[in-house]
UniProtKB/TrEMBL annotation:
InterPro entries: YczE/YyaS-like
A Pfam family of this chain: DUF6198
PANTHER family: INTEGRAL MEMBRANE PROTEIN, INTEGRAL MEMBRANE PROTEIN-RELATED
Keyword vocabulary terms for this entry: Membrane, Transmembrane, Transmembrane helix
Descriptive protein name: Putative membrane protein
Membrane spanning stretches: 12-33, 45-64, 76-96, 102-124, 157-185
Length: 224
């Protein structure tokens, strides 16, 4: 139980750190990250907050990934809900400063990417599944046999295009984050000495199977 409790703490703290990084890139005012352009556009269209748009998009993406056969982890579900809630908490309470001058904005945007990288390390290292957007990327890579870079670029181009049409904020920061986001994440992983390829994820269906097996064993013992 102690191990599970510590895993939950690390998982939720990781999501909160991710939210801090995302809000830092938003408040840098240099243009949003590709997926956040889509979230802001969805927010403009529906009148909901960016955090709620993040949740709504996450739910839709998880459903789509599931149709492609990608397994869902408990971490995927918690990610889908909590990151958006934490984003709203930070933004609605003005807990992250907003910058309007280029140099401070650039520094905060880059720091935001690094913070986001550490947040991803924290939740991914628990091994309870990736986030909805990464899950979709993995599902499409498996389905199409295309490279991760190709699928990631296509995803982000579609997200930016739809978001921009819906009024999402696009700027030099959008281009920089699309190019540098992966490098900053890899740098954060390197500092944390984290090899994402070594993580063995546990999925929801693994736990369902475990519970079914336990119940079946218990039933057979009773019958004996």
């Amino acid at each position: 139980m102690k191990k599970i409790a510590l895993a939950f703490i690390k998982l939720f703290f990781g999501y909160f750190v991710c939210a801090i990084g995302i809000v830092m890139t938003i408040n840098a005012n240099l243009g949003l990250a590709p997926w956040d352009v889509f979230h802001q556009g969805l927010s403009n269209l529906t009148g909901i907050t960016i955090g709620k748009a993040h949740i709504l998009a996450g739910i839709s993406i998880v459903v789509l990934s599931s149709t492609f056969g990608e397994k869902v982890g408990w971490g995927t579900i918690f990610n889908m809900l909590l990151v958006g809630i934490f984003i709203d908490f930070l933004m609605l309470n003005n807990l992250i400063p907003i910058f309007n001058k280029f140099l401070p904005s650039l520094i905060m945007m880059l720091l935001g990417l690094l913070v986001l990288g550490f947040g991803c390390y924290l939740y991914l290292s628990v091994g309870w599944g990736s986030g909805p957007r990464d899950g979709l990327m993995i599902a499409l890579v498996k389905k199409t046999s295309k490279s991760v870079r190709f699928i990631k670029n296509i995803q982000e181009i579609i997200a930016v295009t739809i978001g921009y049409i819906l009024g999402g904020s696009v700027g030099i920061g959008t281009l920089l984050m699309a190019i540098l986001g992966g490098y900053f994440m890899q740098f954060a992983f390197k500092i944390a000495k984290f090899d994402v390829s070594q993580v063995q994820h546990r999925f929801v269906d693994d736990d369902i199977k475990f519970i079914k097996d336990k119940l079946a064993n218990k039933k057979s013992k009773i019958q004996e």
